[in-house]
Amino acid sequence: MIDQNEREAVFPAPVSLPPVGSDSVLEMKMRALSTLDELKELLAITEQCTAQALMAKQQAQKYAQHYRASAKESRKQAARSRFPEIQARLLRLADSSERLCNIAEGTVIKADVEGNAGRREPAKPPHQAAIKRTEDPVSQARRHVAEAEARIERQEALVARLSDNAKHAALADEAREILATMNQTLRLARDHLTTELKE
Q1: Buried b or exposed e, range 45-56, using 16+ CB within 10 angstroms
Q2: At 14, is the secondary structure helix, strand, or coil?
Q3: How far is Cα 108 from Cα 104, in angstroms, rounded to an integer?
Q4: Which of 53, 59, 91, 58 is nearest to 195 (CA)?
Q5: Is 114 left (phi over 0), alpha (psi -120 to 50) or beta?
Q6: At what angle do helices 169-198 and 137-163 cross, to 10 degrees?
């Protein structure tokens, strides 16, 4: 004969199922509904993320288009300039704009990833070389707008002085083209500030 301990080892206790119509069936339905609600919430979050990603992609395309146009315009101005220093600066500006365009498009060139060993970075003024900026994006965007406004003010004064003398008409035209590019950059900086303030 099998004693009680051996019987439990061989034949485990039967599992009791909840009777139909009990609270446990209702609980299972509630769990199913909560799972469905979670899936709906997850779908809504996914759709929101997709919309944000699309907006970010459109914004990146807008920046890429701006930087591409800026690079092209800088190269045109460099080709027309008779002054080697100005040509060199405009070509560096064009290279920088092209790199920014590549970054905005997500097509970083291998040389940019490895570092620009052959390129010389412009020297920073001594007082700025020691300062490491740790500013938030809004402060940085505000600073960019303020700096662009100051540059445009100086450029407008330069255009006015060059326009006064017919002897400098070609330079005045070149300065006006640069001013137009600077105004476009300022508009972009203001758009960026508005975006940062919304976030």
Answers
A1: eeeeeeeeeeee
A2: coil
A3: 9
A4: 59
A5: alpha
A6: 160
> What counts of helices (H) and strands (E) characterise the chain?
7, 0
Answer for the pair 97, 68: CB distance below 8 angstroms, yes or no. Answer: yes
pLDDT digits 0-9 by tens, 157-178 = 989 988 998 888 888 888 898 8
| pTM score of the predicted model | 0.41
Whole-number Å distance between alpha carbons of 88 and 79: 10
69 residue type, one letter: A
The answer to whether the CB of 74 falls within 8 A of the CB of 181 is: yes
Residue count of the chain, please give it.
199
- Domain definitions of the chain by residue range: 26-113, 135-199
Q: pLDDT digit string (tens) for 62-71? A: 888 888 888 8
How far, in whole angstroms, is CA 197 from its chain's centroid?
Answer: 14
Query: Closest Cα to residue 80, out of 180, 172, 184, 185?
Result: 172
SS3 for 113-159 is: HHCCCCCCCCCCCHHHHCCCCCCCHHHHHHHHHHHHHHHHHHHHHHH
